[in-house]
Every structure is written in structure tokens, then in C-alpha cells.
Design a protein that fits this description.
Layout lengths: L1 H29 L1 H4 L2 H4 L4 H15 L2 H13 L5 H14 L2 H7 L6 H12 L5 H27 L6 H8 L6 H18 L2 H13 L5 H14 L2 H6 L5 H23 L1 H11 L6 H20 L3 H11 L22 H30 L5 H30 L5 H36 L6 H27 L2 H6 L1 H24 L4 H29 L3
């Protein structure tokens, strides 16, 4: 008998958690386009930030995802601490949507719903249709898992030893309330899913193993336990990200303290809204929602003070220790559509740095600047671009190893290819600068004709880069195709300059460093053209 109960509860919990994961992932994919607009919604207005937290958490059906994402945004300097506090407060409200999903009385339809959705994925060819089916399958598994847990726990009502066990943390005294809240916090911290513990709480209450006050106390504790995910995510993050995670914990602990202190009055207030005798599941969901709404209302006026307090308590980072060049962070990987959108912005910033290098070399070739004045600056820009490539690659390879839909997978691969090619272009531009520096240091001067040839080649390659960078910004295939003619023209220009130089070498005696240095510069411009053409091939789909 006990084994049968154990198997049913374990299987039900496993299916419930798997269903939550599938529904969450499906919702995230369906919400992808909306999530891309998150960065545009970032604002210092705390009410807008709270609304964004509610919206995002309701979309992805996971406060852990939205809170960790927020920590990632703070870690990447996309959000200030005060903005993050607003989003976290909103996430606390948004996560209560899960409880209301569980209120639906469709447990017996969970298995056929999951089965029909699973079968349909075998026939759907559209990515969107398969994503919707995955979310529906997850929802079905949630209800089927709850049904299994409920059936499994039903026999425990007749076993005195189990009844006495559950009565050990009954919320009939103040310390009993604290004990029940502690159990809820511990269970949620272990499972790392407040939705799962909420489902267990509702199941225990429906089966009569715990009473309504105990269920409410457990729910209060679950709000504390869920903060463990953000705390773990912030361990290696910046000081501001740690402050945001600590704020999440402080807000929820403070909320539980006031709620447990006036627990009897709080229960009376809840019973005026919804009588648990009429609908116990809805009453527990109401308790969860009302607690978070009241807690948010209480903390809104104090978010600024809390941020200032945490800035004093949590030591700021060393300027060198957490120096980053991009606004990307591994913690953002739970929302890949946001990573894809932000990655494009970072690569366009790389393009701005490369344009700056082109301009510095242009000043040298045009005789307006000495190479001595520019090579150090170019080298520093190239080092920065190396960091861009590393940070972009780290985050984007991380999301590629996850479950990306086809569109995001394609965009991520295109972004990574462009990032690599841009960094390589900067390498060759630095080589050109160093070659020119070496020639100058050895007293080697280019003839006016050779300088004019390089100047023209430089201008054409820079013009090609501008067009490709613009086409990448717009993701315009026609613009990419239009650059092919320029690539071919630069190729012919290089061949002509190379042939002229080799003919000149055979007819005249010139210093070896002049001959090899000039050819190195020509070859480096050709290689830059080749790497830019690689980007064209990716976006123009040239086989």
C-alpha cells in the first residue's frame, strides 16, 4: 500500500514538474516577440517596472525565470537596481497566475489533453503550432500530475500516523504558523519551484490532510523559498545583481513576517473575499495573490530606501574585477529572444569600433596623421573587440545548447558568424597599422602612387564594410546581395595593384621591406574583403 502511494505521488510530482517546464518553455517561445520589446520598456518609473514584472512572469509562467532574467539584466548593466526592484515586485504578483490555473477543475481531462497535444506535434510542420502544442501538453501534464498526486494521497486520510504527522505543523498558534511557513520555504528551496509546492499544498488541502489556515501559512513560506533561485544565480554576479537578489529575499521575508504577525486578521480578511468552504483551491490561490499584492503595495514607497540601504551594506565591485564591454550575461539565457535582440545591438557596437579604426587608418593614408599617433589607439580598440567576441560567444553558445526554436537558432548562428568575422576584420586592420608602423620606423616611405593605390583600396573596403554593416542592422537580404558587385570590384582592384607591384619589382630595385610591407598591406585588405564576403554568403544564402 505504502509503495503504491509513493509511486503515485512521485509519478504525479514528476509529471507536474515536467508539465510546468514544458508549459513555461512553450509560453516563452510564444512570447518571444513580446520579450524582445522588454529592453525598450525599461524605465525609471517604478509602476511601469512593476507592470513589466507582472507581464513577463505571467507570460513565461515562472517567477524564477523572470527574476533570474532581471538579475542578469542588472549584472549586464541594462537595469539599475531601483528598476530591478520594481520588476521583482511585479514578478511576485505575476507568479500567482499559476495558482489560478490550478483552480480550473479539469484534472480528469489532463491526460487526454497531454496525449492529444503530444500526438499533434508529430503532424505539425509549423514551429509556432508545435510550440503551442508543447505548451498545451505541459498544461495537460500539470493537471494529470495533480490528479495522480491527489489519488495517491487520498488513502493517507485514513492512516492515523500520517494524520498526526501533518498535524505537527498545523497553523493553530503563532509558532505553528511560523513552523508551517518554514516548512513551505524549505520545500520550495529544495524543489526550486514555488508552482510545484503550491500544487502540493493545494492537493494536501483538498484531500483534507491539512486545513485551510495551514495551507495559507505554507503558501506564505513558499514565497520565501522561491528566492533561493535568484540568490544562487547572483553568487558570481556583480554587486548590483547581488543587491537585487538580496532585495527579493528581504521583500518576501518582510512580507511573511507581517502576514504571520497578523495571521488571524489576515485569514478573516481573506474569508471575506472568498469562503474556503465553497472553493478551497480558489481560496488558497486568493491567499497567494492577495499576499503578494498587499506586499507590493506596502513596499512601493520604500524601494528607493531599500536600494540605498543595500548599496551601503553590499560592497561595490572593484573597477577591474567586473569590467565588461557588453550588456550580455549568462543569466539572460532563460529568455533567448532577448539575448538574440541584445546580441545584434552589441555587434552593431562592434561595427562602430571597426568604423573608428577605418577612420584612423584613413587619416594616416591621407597624410593627416602619423601612424605613431594612431597605432596604440587602434590596438586598444582591437583588444576591446576581442572582449566583445568572447562575451557574445559565451552567452550565445550557451543558448544554442538549450531548446531554441528555428528562428532564434538561425538568428543566433548568423549573429555568431558576423561577430567572428567582425573581430577578424579588426585583426587585419591592426596588422595593416603595425606594418605601416614598422615601415615608418625603418625609414621606408611609400611612393605617392602606392599611397594613392592603398588609399583608394582602403576607401572601397571601408565603403563595403559600411554597406554590410547597414544590411546587417536591417537584416536586408537585397542589400547584402547588392554588395557582391563591390566585393568583385575590390578583388579586381587588388589583382591589378598586385600585378603592377610585381611588375615594378622586376623592373626596379627596391628595399625588401618596402616590397613585402606593401604586399602585406594589399593582402590584408583582400582578406578583409574575403571575411566581409563570408557575412554576405550567410545572409544572402549563397551556396
Amino acid at each position: 500500500m505504502y509503495l503504491d502511494i509513493f509511486f503515485k505521488v512521485l509519478g504525479g510530482l514528476g509529471l507536474f514538474l515536467y508539465g510546468m517546464e514544458n508549459m513555461s518553455k512553450g509560453m516563452q517561445k510564444m512570447a518571444g516577440e513580446r520579450l524582445k520589446k522588454i529592453l525598450a520598456m525599461l524605465t525609471t518609473n517604478r509602476f511601469m517596472a512593476i507592470g513589466m514584472g507582472v507581464f513577463v512572469t505571467a507570460l513565461v509562467q515562472s517567477s524564477s525565470v523572470s527574476t533570474v532574467m532581471t538579475i542578469g539584466f542588472v549584472n549586464a548593466s541594462l537595469l539599475t537596481l531601483k528598476q530591478a526592484l520594481g520588476v521583482i515586485l511585479g514578478a511576485n504578483i505575476g507568479t500567482t497566475i499559476t495558482g489560478w490555473i490550478l483552480v480550473l477543475k479539469i484534472g480528469k481531462y489532463g491526460l487526454p489533453m497531454a496525449g492529444a497535444a503530444a500526438i499533434s506535434t508529430m503532424f505539425f510542420t509549423s514551429e509556432k503550432a508545435r510550440t503551442r502544442a508543447m505548451a498545451i501538453m505541459g498544461l495537460g501534464l500539470i493537471f494529470f500530475g495533480l490528479e495522480l498526486m491527489s489519488d495517491g494521497l487520498k488513502p493517507l486520510r485514513s492512516l492515523p500516523e500520517f494524520v498526526s504527522l501533518f498535524h505537527a505543523f498545523t497553523a493553530d498558534t503563532y509558532f505553528g504558523v511560523l513552523k508551517a511557513a518554514a516548512v513551505g520555504a524549505l520545500l520550495t528551496a529544495v524543489v526550486q519551484s514555488s508552482s510545484a509546492t503550491l500544487g502540493i499544498t493545494i492537493t494536501l488541502a483538498v484531500q483534507g490532510l491539512i486545513d485551510y489556515p495551514t495551507a495559507v501559512a505554507l503558501v506564505l513560506g513558499e514565497n520565501v523559498g522561491t528566492t533561493i533561485t535568484a540568490l544562487l544565480a547572483s553568487l558570481n554576479a556583480t554587486a548590483n545583481a547581488k543587491r537585487a537578489a538580496y532585495a527579493h529575499t528581504i521583500i518576501n521575508i518582510a512580507g511573511v513576517l507581517w502576514a504571520t504577525t497578523i495571521f488571524r486578521f489576515y485569514l478573516g480578511f481573506l474569508e471575506h473575499i472568498l469562503d474556503p468552504d465553497n472553493n478551497l483551491t480558489a481560496a488558497i490561490a486568493t491567499a497567494h495573490t492577495m499576499f503578494n499584492i498587499i506586499n507590493v503595495c506596502l513596499f512601493i514607497p520604500f524601494t528607493g530606501y531599500l536600494a540605498d540601504f543595500l548599496c551601503k551594506v553590499v560592497k561595490s565591485d572593484s573597477p577591474v574585477a567586473k569590467e565588461r564591454v557588453t550588456h550580455l550575461d549568462i543569466l539572460m539565457a532563460d529568455t533567448p529572444s532577448v539575448v538574440v535582440e541584445q546580441t545584434q545591438k552589441e555587434i552593431l557596437t562592434m561595427g562602430t569600433h571597426i568604423k573608428e579604426i577605418f577612420m584612423k587608418l584613413d587619416n594616416v593614408l591621407s597624410g593627416r596623421e602619423k601612424i605613431d599617433n594612431q597605432v596604440g589607439k587602434i590596438e586598444k580598440l582591437e583588444d576591446t573587440l576581442d572582449l566583445f567576441q568572447k562575451e557574445i560567444s559565451d552567452v550565445n553558445f550557451h543558448i544554442l545548447n538549450g531548446t531554441l526554436d528555428h528562428a532564434n537558432t538561425e538568428d543566433t548562428r548568423e549573429n555568431l558568424q558576423t561577430c567572428d568575422e567582425y573581430e577578424t576584420v579588426s585583426d587585419y586592420l591592426l596588422r595593416i597599422a603595425k606594418t605601416m608602423k614598422k615601415m615608418q620606423d625603418n625609414g621606408i616611405e611609400l611612393s605617392e602612387y602606392k599611397r594613392a593605390t592603398l588609399n583608394q583600396l582602403h576607401a572601397n573596403v571601408e565603403d563595403l564594410f559600411d554597406d554590410i554593416n547597414r544590411a546587417y542592422e536591417l537584416r536586408d537580404r537585397d542589400l547584402f546581395i547588392g554588395t557582391i558587385k563591390k566585393c568583385n570590384f575590390i578583388k579586381e582592384e587588388y589583382k591589378r595593384a598586385r600585378a603592377e607591384h610585381l611588375e615594378h619589382v622586376s623592373e626596379n630595385v627596391m628595399p625588401a621591406m618596402l616590397s613585402t610591407g606593401y604586399m602585406d598591406i594589399l593582402n590584408n585588405y583582400r582578406r578583409i574583403k574575403d571575411h566581409l564576403y563570408n557575412i554576405v554568403e550567410v545572409f544572402a544564402k549563397i551556396n
